[in-house]
Design a protein that fits this description.
This protein has about 325 residues and is an alpha/beta fold. The chain has eleven helices and twelve strands. The protein is about 35% helix and about 20% strand. The protein has a seven-stranded parallel beta sheet, sandwiched between helices. The longest helix is centred in the first third of the chain and has 20 residues. The chain is globular and about 55 Å long. The relative contact order is 0.16. The structure holds nicotinamide-adenine-dinucleotide (NAD). Nicotinamide-adenine-dinucleotide (NAD) binds next to helix 1, helix 4, strand 5 and strand 7.
Length: about 325
């Protein structure tokens, strides 16, 4: 039986590597091969892929999704794309948006063009709840127009629109997912959970933005990759699927939980000047993914957070590793 050849972009980052480890793990399908295409920016970690290094259905290509020739060659050898690669940190997009527009917008369009040229049968584009902008109450359905505020969110919204345009104009089978904030092991320590955990474990103070009352919905990375796989295998072309986690917390409440889980004192928290244009609250309505695909977040937040803290405590050598690649050169 021939195997489905999946090109996973950004597979050395937090969520992409979790997807690859899951797909090639004991519970994953055995009828797929996976090629990771990753540029190994600061956010990537070769250790994220150690677990699959020896799998004969896995290959690593170090390269940029904006490299048209490389992407073209790779796409000719693949059936499907699951696209995670992106610049993903809002604060960095406030300091400079150039790389966000390049990787997130131009990179996505480069992949879409190649997918179209080579007749890829599926393109799963992984996006974010941030494209909807801030919502004071209720939850955004997939019909809600995008209204992004940060350069990061605007670059993701742009890539979503371009991806959907390739479906509407050219008939390419594009499926878009929009998920809430992910947490779990193997995340580069710059976003709130891994940053605070690694600092608190080291006995350092943590910086809480503004009044700490911004609200986020937390989604365990296990649940997210399960949803992405459901969208890849059971979703419909041209559709958007919201993926929520079901645990809404203010950053202040989250910080209290992290302080406690790390055994730190309340004086570890320093309130700092708010992020520019800091969205107050995100919330997605994920009933469509539930009804159509059977998606439901399974991970209990208390357990997931405790396991995440334990992972950072036990693996300083892993998350502390630089992005020196162990993979093959660009093909
Ligand atoms: P990450 O920053 O951990 O990883 C991104 C990966 O993409 C890295 O391995 C990086 O090297 C790679 N990459 C970046 N630019 C590239 C380029 N030009 N060419 C090739 N590779 C490139 O990100 P993540 O948290 O794993 O997020 C994955 C996807 O999920 C992103 O598209 C992000 O927008 C989306 N998302 C993330 C979250 C979250 O909470 N982390 C929430 C919603 C959506």
């Amino acid at each position: 039986m021939s195997k489905t050849r999946i090109l996973v972009t950004g597979g050395a980052g937090f969520i992409g590597s979790h997807y690859v480890r899951t797909l090639l793990g004991p519970l994953g399908p055995d009828d797929v091969t996976v090629t990771v295409l990753d540029a190994f920016t600061y956010a990537a970690n070769p250790a994220n892929l150690d677990a699959v290094q020896d799998c004969d259905r896995y290959r690593l290509v170090v390269g940029d999704i904006c490299d048209r020739d490389l992407v073209d060659r790779l796409m000719a050898e693949h059936d499907q794309v699951v696209h995670f690669a992106a610049e993903s940190h809002v604060d960095r997009s406030l300091a400079s948006a150039t790389e966000f527009v390049r990787s997130n917008v131009l990179g996505t369009q480069t992949l879409l063009d190649a997918a179209l040229r080579h007749g890829a049968d599926r393109f799963v584009h992984v996006s974010t709840d941030e494209v909807y902008g801030s919502i004071p109450e209720g939850s955004c359905s997939e019909e809600q127009p995008v209204n992004p505020n940060s350069p990061y969110a605007a670059s993701k919204a742009s890539s979503d629109l371009i991806a959907l345009a390739y479906h509407r104009s050219h008939g390419l089978d594009v499926r878009v997912t929009r998920c809430s904030n992910n947490y779990g092991p193997h995340q580069f320590p710059e976003k709130i959970i891994p940053l605070f955990v690694t600092r608190l474990l080291a006995g350092e103070k943590v910086p809480l933005y503004g009044d700490g009352l911004n609200v986020r919905d937390w989604l365990h990375v296990d649940d997210h990759v399960t949803a992405v796989e459901l969208v890849r295998t059971r979703g419909r072309a041209g559709e958007i699927y919201n993926i929520g986690g079901g645990t809404e917390l203010t950053n202040r409440d989250l910080t209290e939980l992290l302080v406690e889980a790390c055994g730190a004192g309340r004086d570890s928290v320093e309130y700092v000047t708010d992020r520019k244009g800091h969205d107050r609250r995100y919330s997605v309505d994920w009933r469509k993914a539930h009804v159509e695909l059977g998606y439901k977040p399974r991970k209990n937040f208390t357990d997931g957070l405790a396991e995440t803290v334990a992972w950072y405590r036990d693996n300083p050598d892993v998350w502390g590793r630089t992005n020196q690649t162990k993979g093959s050169a660009p093909c």
